[in-house]
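FAQ: What does the model actually see?

It sees only this:
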Amino acid sequence: MTTNELIALISIIVAVVVVGGGAALVITRGRRQLPPAPPTREIDQPDGTTPISPDPEVPAEPEPAEADHGTAVDTLERPEAPQGRLVRLRARLAKSQGSLGKGLLAVLGRSTLDDAAWEEIEDTLLAADVGVGATDELVANLRTKLRVEGVTDPEVAKAALRAELVRLVDPTLDRSLSSAGADGRPGVVLVVGVNGTGKTTTVGRLARVLVADEKTVVLGAADTFRAAAADQLQTWGERVGVPTVRGPEGGDPASVGFESVQRGIADGADVVLVDTAGRLHTKSGLMDELGKVKRVIEKQAPVTEVLLVIDATTGQNGLTQARVFGEVVDVTGIVLTKLDGTAKGGIVIAVQRELGVPVKFVGLGEGADDLAPFDADEFVDALLS
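And it is asked to produce this:
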């Protein structure tokens, strides 16, 4: 073997040793780095405090049952609490009813109140649908008070006007919804009124008020003349997780009312809300049928509340409706809708005096939660704002 061959052999042996040693070192270090793997398991089960994403090759395990349940709950709307609606009452009413308050306050702000001024006050009240009797009473009382006390300060006169209006609206009336049943049966609220007043919408909004108050509710679609009404009511119910009982189009509304209360009893519901068909108060046959609906329902449970829905923009015509419905089904409360438009605030006073029952709710707008409990002081302040 030559010297060159010997040198080449030695070089090969050295290279093999070096490469083998390096590989062994890499393997050894790799093995020594394997134990830190547990942090991967920590990532798989985070405690919520570490903003580290799981390794892309080891995705976090999903939890189908909890995810599905959460999605179902999120699809249900959470209605605004009833008290929250009162916050918006004054702003909504003040915006639409300002003409009455401004008209009265403008006259009372004059330095002298002569006969012409008092006639102007009377005209303003009558134009606002307060009614003849209530207008005469308010003007007589206010005129006497200002004369006897020698009031000349416009602010004092305005305060006297407010006091008289509050007295006429009567804050002592019980405006709570009679929705509590007895003997384990649900309370039954029957909602009535003529076509176009917003009964179905009122029932849906009322369901939201009750759900927000943590009541369990069953809806009864007893307006069997219009399939659209039943569909609309069912949609309202689905939005807050409330079941709707409905019958075939053109079916017996009394039967639907009966089955609705039956379902409410079976489910242990707190309240059953029954929507009835809009009917002309001048049609005696339809009004008699409404009486039948109430009688049939009461074979299951007493009707605890009969709410008459009146469109506030109809003015004195609403009083005629109130009178006829009151004779048929013993109305216990009034819902005034569309008080956000061109309605005249005085209808509240007139309808209460006509029926002797309180306005319990007012519709303030087009929103789902725009049904507010009526408050006498807030209403008068809105008129005068």
